[in-house]
């Protein structure tokens, strides 16, 4: 395959390295541009490729958890992230954690062994290269110059610089006896409303202002937009601020009393199946444990389980549902692919997984064949489905969770669900792998 053109990759993070690995191990040439150590983003500090910028954990190990399942799928697809992670683990209970230095070095060593197919160019890319195929995997902290170039190519409306994520609740964990369906001013019934009386509101508000939050990184400070302030920042402005903001009760009447509630939390369906609900306007920097504690004070959410916690951080990402096909290729520009956090997935393994798929998809592209995406019943496929098919207008980054998967048939008890999702996913993955490998090896 070496007569084919080199694939140019921008960014030697988790996604860029994973894509490069999938390509070089199948005999394709890669030119990977990484700006470190000449230039570092505000969060990167090591010169190594595949740097873990914060935690050293890849989250749950068990396949009955969506993050564990995603890792197992990646193992079965010869992921370099998983090869290196399994070689450099440190004890972390039920999670898979690694020695971050050794992990990055291992990824770099595996890739370097593939020289001369693998060429590493330590240079910042400031304008978009002409060569195709081109993979952009420059991550959540893409350099300013490249961001400008992307803005021009994609138009600014499709490129974002911060995410403001509200928590997602599993529908089955909500107590509906406190809830009612309605849109404001009787214009439909699109929202599930959780009403609070004055006493419940005061208890919630106090807990919120006292809760512990994740401190912003220095490069993130005071950059909130008024339109998406963290809920705790609004709460600290005064006891009633939330009642004039995301918890405003105007235009709503409780069906049992016919009266306007004191305050309301509105939940909106996050997916077509209705298995996930978004807490509207509840973007937050509270620590995960605090989110559980405080949000469970809302009537109806006392036993809520969260598929995703709220967050706000600096994050360069594109509106993938508008821009990308299921091959992770740009719709309007031939031969340009995206992978990693910049596509709107959230997390180390999710970013690496999209790098893996982009690598495979580019091989199909070079062979002039249509890429066969993994089915949405797999963790890889569910994530791909989310970033390419989610609501374009409200697109926000997402980590892997079972709420993204097609629901299971029948009424399966909660404690068995994870295993059943996993069994179905791994069966389907093997079938898909069979099809894809036969093309790649054929
Ligand atoms: C501050 C912060 C903390 C995070 N903490 C966690 C966490 O604890 N756990 C978790 O699961 N996820 C975390 N994430 C989210 C995300 O999963 C990681 O950022 C992940 O590393 C993304 O992988 P990636 O390959 O898309 O980007 P990256 O790993 O960031 O890789 C992108 C690479 O591109 C390079 N680059 C950028 N611009 C250019 C350019 N113009 N030319 C050449 N090279 C360029 C960068 O130097 C970098 O090496 C965090 C994100 C941020 C911003």
List the helices and strands and how they pair.
Blueprint: E1 7-10, H1 14-24, E2 30-33, E3 57-60, H2 66-76, H3 80-87, E4 89-90, E5 95-98, H4 100-112, E6 118-121, E7 134-136, H5 144-154, E8 159-165, E9 168-170, E10 180-181, E11 191-196, H6 198-210, H7 231-236, E12 263-269, E13 276-279, H8 288-295, E14 306-308, E15 311-318, H9 320-323, E16 336-338, H10 348-366, H11 379-389, H12 414-441
Parallel strand pairs: 1-2, 1-7, 2-6, 7-16
Antiparallel strand pairs: 3-5, 4-5, 8-15, 9-13, 9-14, 10-11, 11-12, 12-13
Helix pairs in contact: 1-4, 1-10, 2-3, 2-10, 2-12, 3-4
This protein binds flavin-adenine dinucleotide.
Q: How would you describe what is shown here?
A:
This protein has 442 residues and is an alpha/beta fold. The protein folds into two domains: 7-164 and 313-441, FAD/NAD(P)-binding domain (3-Layer(bba) Sandwich); 168-307, Elongation Factor Tu (Ef-tu), domain 3 (Beta Barrel). Helix content is 32%, strand content 15%. It has twelve helices and 16 strands. The strands form four sheets. The chain has a six-stranded antiparallel sheet. It has a five-stranded parallel sheet with strand order 6-2-1-7-16, with helices on one face. Helix 1 (14-24) links the parallel strand 1 (7-10) and strand 2 (30-33). Helix 1 (14-24) runs parallel beside helix 4 (100-112). The longest helix is centred in the C-terminal third of the chain and has 28 residues, at 414-441. The chain is globular, with a radius of gyration of 23 Å. The structure holds flavin-adenine dinucleotide (FAD). The site of flavin-adenine dinucleotide (FAD) has 34 residues, from helix 1 and helix 10. Flavin-adenine dinucleotide (FAD) is lined by residues 10-16, 33-36, 41, 43-44, 53-55, 124-125, 137-143, 146, 217, 340-342, 347-348, 351.
């Amino acid at each position: 395959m070496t007569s084919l053109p080199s694939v140019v990759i921008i960014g030697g993070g988790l996604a860029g390295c994973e894509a490069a690995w999938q390509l070089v191990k199948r005999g394709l040439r890669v030119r990977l541009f990484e700006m470190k150590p000449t230039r570092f983003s505000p969060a990167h500090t090591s010169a190594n490729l595949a740097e873990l910028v914060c935690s050293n954990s890849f989250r749950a190990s068990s396949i009955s958890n969506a993050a564990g399942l995603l890792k197992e799928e990646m193992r079965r697809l010869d992921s370099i992230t998983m090869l290196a992670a399994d070689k450099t683990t440190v004890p972390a209970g039920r999670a898979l954690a690694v020695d971050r230095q050794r992990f990055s070095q291992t990824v770099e060593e595996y890739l370097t062994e593939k020289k001369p197919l693998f060429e590493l160019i330590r240079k910042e890319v400031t304008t978009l290269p002409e060569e195709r195929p081109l993979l952009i995997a420059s991550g959540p902290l893409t350099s300013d110059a490249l961001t400008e170039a992307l803005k021009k190519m994609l138009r600014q409306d499709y490129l974002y610089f911060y995410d403001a994520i509200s928590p997602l609740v599993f529908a089955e964990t909500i107590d509906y006896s406190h809830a009612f369906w309605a849109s404001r001013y009787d214009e439909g019934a699109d929202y599930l409303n959780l009403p609070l009386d004055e006493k419940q509101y005061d208890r919630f508000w106090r807990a919120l202002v006292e809760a512990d939050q994740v401190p912003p990184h220095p490069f993130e400070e005071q950059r909130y937009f008024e339109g998406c302030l963290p809920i705790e920042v609004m709460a600290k402005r005064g006891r009633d601020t939330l009642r004039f903001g995301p918890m405003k009760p105007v235009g709503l009447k409780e069906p049992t009393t016919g009266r306007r509630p004191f305050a309301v939390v509105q939940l909106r369906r996050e997916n077509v199946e209705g298995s996930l609900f978004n807490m509207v306007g509840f973007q937050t920097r509270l620590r995960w444990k605090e989110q559980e504690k405080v949000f469970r004070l809302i009537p109806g959410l006392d036993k809520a389980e969260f598929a995703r916690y709220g967050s706000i951080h600096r994050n360069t990402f594109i509106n993938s549902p508008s821009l990308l096909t299921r091959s992770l290729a740009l719709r309007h520009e031939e031969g340009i692919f995206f992978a990693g956090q910049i596509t709107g997935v959230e997390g180390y393994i999710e970013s690496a997984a999209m790098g893996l798929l982009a690598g495979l998809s580019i091989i199909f592209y070079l062979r002039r064949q249509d890429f066969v995406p993994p089915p949405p019943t797999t963790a890889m496929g569910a994530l791909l489905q989310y970033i390419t098919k989610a609501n374009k207008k409200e697109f926000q980054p997402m980590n892997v969770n079972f709420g993204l998967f097609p629901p299971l048939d029948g009424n399966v008890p909660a404690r068995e669900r994870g295993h059943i999702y996993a069994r179905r996913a791994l069966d389907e993955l093997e079938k898909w792998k069979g099809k894809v490998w036969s093309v790649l090896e054929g």
